[in-house]
Each structure stands twice: as structure tokens, then as C-alpha cells.
Amino acid sequence: MYRFFGNFLWKDNSGSFRCKLTCFLWVWLLFAAAGYTSLPAQSSADSLRIAELSKNLAGFVKTNQLDAARLTVDSILEIARDKHMHQKMADCYNNYSLIERKRGNEDGFLENSAKAADLYLAAGAFPEAAKSLSIRAQWYVDQKNYPLAHDLFSKSLELREKAGDTAGIINNLINIGNLNYIEGNPDEASNYFYRALRLANNLNNNNLSGIALMNLSNVLVQQKNYVKAIEYLGQSLEYHQKDGNRKEEANVLNNIGIIYFETGDYKKAREFFLRSLAIKEELKTDPAGLIKIYNNLGLIAKEENNPGLAEEYYTSTLRISRQAGDKSGEAVALNNLGSLKLLQNDPDALPLLLQSIELSQTLGLKKLTLANYDNLQKHYSAEKRWKEAFEYLMKYRALSDSIFNEESAAKIIELQTLYDTEMKEKENVILRERQRVQLLRNRLLTLVTIIFAIMAGSFFFMFRLKKQSLSKSRLLFSKEKELAQIKLKASEESNQNLQKMLFAEEEIKKLQAITLEQKKQELVSAAMLLANKNEAFERLKKMAEEIKTDEKVDSAAKAKEIVSEIDRQTDFENQWDQFKIHFESLHHHFFDRLKSKCPTLTNYDLQICAYIKLNLSTKEISRLMNIAPESVNTQRYRLRKKFDLQTEVTLDDFLHSM
């Protein structure tokens, strides 16, 4: 994975299925061509002929003679068809697909790859079928058709699980994880990488464990969790060192350097880049890796304001790119050199940028072309050549809009593919349901036919019996008629009894309703009488208080006696307990339910809730409670808060629902 153009870092992702799968495909092709795939029993002559053709095929592939390679596969396929070698036929179609892909014939690649997968499945060669599906999935990844890639990778994973291919399962999990990473689903990607890591550890496969950790570190870097990412890369480094995998060790060192660069620690970043560079120069088998390292070192030198050293590294990048025939790397190196010289107002910047733009346009590297347009308009603006500056500015804007539109179109295609896939799945579900219904109908029809046949046979047998014994039949008919009359009479009596029972139930319900209403009325009446009594006592109490203030001692003593008596009569707590007993005889466990909803409710709160349950108005409640109506409303508001009621739920509805 890497960032493009101008100031960019090259990241080695050994878990990336693109580079690993491409190498694997051609290795597999060579092995298949050399006759290492399993063959059914065949004659000695056929074996020798296929071995000879396979040897020729391997040579043609190595020398990139694709037409000759295809003709050779034609010959092998002819023998395989004649001898019914299904797996060898699948190998041939797989080889066709790889040849067509190298030619750039995408339709031919997809068609032959699909045939190969079908033939492998028919032959029960699940690992080979899984590989074929993965090849097509990678092609869809390159086309950014992620839904179809997901589908094929998932099917490949199912086949590997069926075959018990643990190493293949790990690779598939890493592939699907990388696909989620590309789509911007880091959590889902991490899940797949962790599953792959656990299996790789159980398998004691250091290489796959290191790859899984490398991919997990990429997710952590995306989430800015650099400390954990470096920890995982350190573990990955240990695995590759134990395995002696120097190439992957260099890749891990490069990625650690990138993290230190991202965090601004250029000294440590340079240290790890140089360690990675030393291994790659020692191996001398990875020019692309050397290009990445030199480019990253050049970027550090540029950030540290050391243009001379940066130019040296970028020049090395350009030299190696040209030696390796890496046109893409060459275009990027030219852009980097041109951008560096542009900052120094060096006239050599212009030819470098023009060479870069020519290559990037030829290779279809739109983002690199965009970066070159930007640099050129800056160059011409600095020289006050406004016409050229304006032309490149317009090109920059047009290409920028084009890239944006392509990305939007790709997103629309992705969404359309998702929709089509979903609709197809729905159609399959409907089809399966129709097939299931049809199967049930057929079974039901068969069952009905059998029943009718049994009934027809029974009727025929009965007819013969009746014909042989007409008198017995008449007697039987007479008995049946009498039995029918008895049943009819019993049914009528049963209906009458049922009607009586229903009538009795209705009467009981009416009586219960009347009793319930009477209890309600009694309760309300008791409450109102209680209120009137309390009001009367309250007035007497006030009168007694007035007498109490009289200077005459006898009157005061008398008043004190009246007040004491009234206090005894207005024992609110005792009256409330009596009221609760009456109330709960009508509304069982009402107060318990309220308490379970809100344990902090007081007797005062419960009393107001009971009055609301009895449908008493605010004015009536204020009389019963001997408080102002405003206080009742305040208390209702506090109860709403205690019960934590939503705005749309009224207190009355809540209490009536209890």
C-alpha cells in the first residue's frame, strides 16, 4: 500500500493479496504446465505425451510466448477430453485464463476461470476450485468491484474449510480482511486478521503469522494507534527472522520506518529505512523494494531541508526504475525530482516534470498527471508565463473533476452491484420458496390421490357387501337413521345447555360489573365523606383556636379540650390506612406496583395517585387533600418526574394502565 505522487511514502504490505497472488498464479501455472497437478489413471503413451507438452508449455510461459503456450494447452486439453481427465481439463481452462489475463483479454480470462472453477468442483478438487475463485476475486478487486470480490473470496473460503486446508483458510481470511481494509471497514478487517493470526499460530507458520500481524499494524496506523502498530510490527519482524525470510524482514523494517516518519521521528525513520535498504541490496532480487526505500529516504531528506541528499536518493530511484523497466516508478521519480528542483527555482525542473507527465499520461496514472499539472502551473506562474500557467491550471481542474467523477461513478457502480446482488439473492430465495411450495403441492396431490384410491376401493367393497346382503344393509340404514336422530337430539340438548351456560356467564359478568361499579362509588363516596368530615373538623379547629385566644381562662381550657378532640378525630394517618384497605380491595396491588416503579414514593404521593386512578378532578383532589389546586398540579408534575414519563404519555394514562 502506498501514497501517490509528490511527497509520498512507499509502504510494503506483505499481506496484500495483489502482489502475492500474482506471483502465486504464475508459479501455479508453471506447476500445472509441468504436470504436477494430479492426473487420473491413463495410458503410458498419454502420460508421456502430456509430460512432453507440459515441459514445452513451461518453457513458452517463461519466455512469454503466449500464442505457443495456448496452442500447447489446446493439445493437452484434447488428450484430457478424450481420456475424460476432468481435473486435467480444469487445469487447462485455468491455464487459458491466466494466458488471456496476461494478454489483457479480460473477457477471456473471466470465462475460462469460471469454467476451470466449475470443472474443479465437479471433480471434487476443492482446493484448486478455491484458488480459481480467488483469482477471479482479485481481478474484481483490481476493478474495484468489491461486492463480487467479497462473494468469490467467501465462496473460496467455504471450499477451503470443506477441504480442511488451514493454510488456504488463513490466506483467504487475510484476503477478505484486506478487502474490508480497502473498503474502509477497519473493525471488520481486524476481525479477519485476528482469525488468520490465531490459525497461523496454531499451525506454527511463522510466515503467515508475520503477514497477519503486518496487516493488523496497517489497520492500527489508519486509526493513529502507532504504539500498538509498532508492537505488532516488532512481533512480525521476529517471526520473519525466525523463518529466515529476509525479504519480508526488509518489508517490515520499511513499514516501521514509515510509522516513525508519520510521527515526526525522522532519525528513527531513517534508521529503519537504512536497515531495510541493506537487506534489499544484499538480496539483489527486489528492485521495486529498492525504489520504495530510496524514495522514502529522499522524502526524509526533503523534510529535513537537505535538498542535496534528497536529490541523490531520488536520482537513485530514477536509475533503478529505468534499469528495472519500471515505467511507473520512473514517472514518480521524475515527478519527485522535478518537484524538488521546482522548490529551488532550478530550470532543470521543467524538463523533468514534462518527462514525468508524458510517462504518467502514457501509463494512465491520472493522479500523477494531476500532480504534474499542479507543479507545471506553479512553475509557469513563478516565471510569470501566465498563458502556460492558465492552460495547466485548466487541465488540472478538468482532470481533477474527471477523477472525482470516475470515483463517483465507481461508487455508483458499487452500489448498483450491491443492489443487483441483493435482488438476485431475493430472487433465489423466492425461487427456492416456490420450489418448496411446488414440492409440498406434489406431495399433497399424491397423498390426496392415495386417499381417493383407498376411499374408492372401500366404497366398491362396501357396495358388494350391500349387494350381497340387502336386508342387512336396510337394517343398518335403519339403525344409522335412529343413531342420527339420537345424535341430533343430543346435539340440540347440548346447544341448549351451551346457551344456558352463556346466558349464566353474561349474567355473572353483569353482576360483577355492577358490584365493581358499586365498590367504586362506595370508595369515592367514602373519600368524599372523609373530605367533608375533615373540612368540618378543620373549621371547628379554627373556631377553637379563636376561643383559645380569649383572655378568659375557662374558655381557653374548653377550647383546648375541643382542639384535642378534633385532633383525635382527624387522625389522617389512620384514615389513610382505612382508605388504602378499601382502595386495594378494588385495585389489587396497585400501590405495590407503584412502589416497584419508584421506591421513593411517599404516602402523600400514593394518595394523589389513588385519587387520579379514581378519575377525581384536580378540584376534588385538592378538597380531599386539603390543599390548593395549584399544589395538586405541582404534585402531578413532580410525580411525572419521579416516574420519568415521556412527553407524549400523560400521568392519568400511566396510572390507569397500572
Please characterize this protein's 3D structure:
This protein is flat. Among the domains are: 147 residues, Serine Threonine Protein Phosphatase 5, Tetratricopeptide repeat (Alpha Horseshoe), CATH 1.25.40.10; 93 residues, Tetratricopeptide repeat domain (Serine Threonine Protein Phosphatase 5, Tetratricopeptide repeat, Alpha Horseshoe), CATH 1.25.40.10; 72 residues, Winged helix-like DNA-binding domain superfamily/Winged helix DNA-binding domain (Arc Repressor Mutant, subunit A, Orthogonal Bundle), CATH 1.10.10.10. The chain is built from 27 helices and no strands. The longest helix is centred in the middle third of the chain and has 83 residues. α3 packs antiparallel against α4. The N terminus is likely disordered. With 658 residues, it is an all-alpha fold.
Secondary structure: elements and pairs:
Layout: H1 17-33, H2 44-62, H3 66-82, H4 86-103, H5 106-122, H6 126-142, H7 146-163, H8 166-182, H9 186-203, H10 206-222, H11 226-243, H12 246-262, H13 266-283, H14 287-303, H15 307-324, H16 327-343, H17 349-363, H18 366-382, H19 386-468, H20 470-548, H21 553-569, H22 572-586, H23 590-597, H24 603-613, H25 618-625, H26 629-643, H27 651-656
Helix pairs in contact: 1-2, 1-4, 2-3, 3-4, 4-5, 5-6, 6-7, 7-8, 8-9, 8-10, 9-10, 10-11, 11-12, 12-13, 12-14, 13-14, 14-15, 15-16, 16-17, 16-18, 17-18, 18-19, 19-20, 20-21, 20-22, 20-25, 25-26
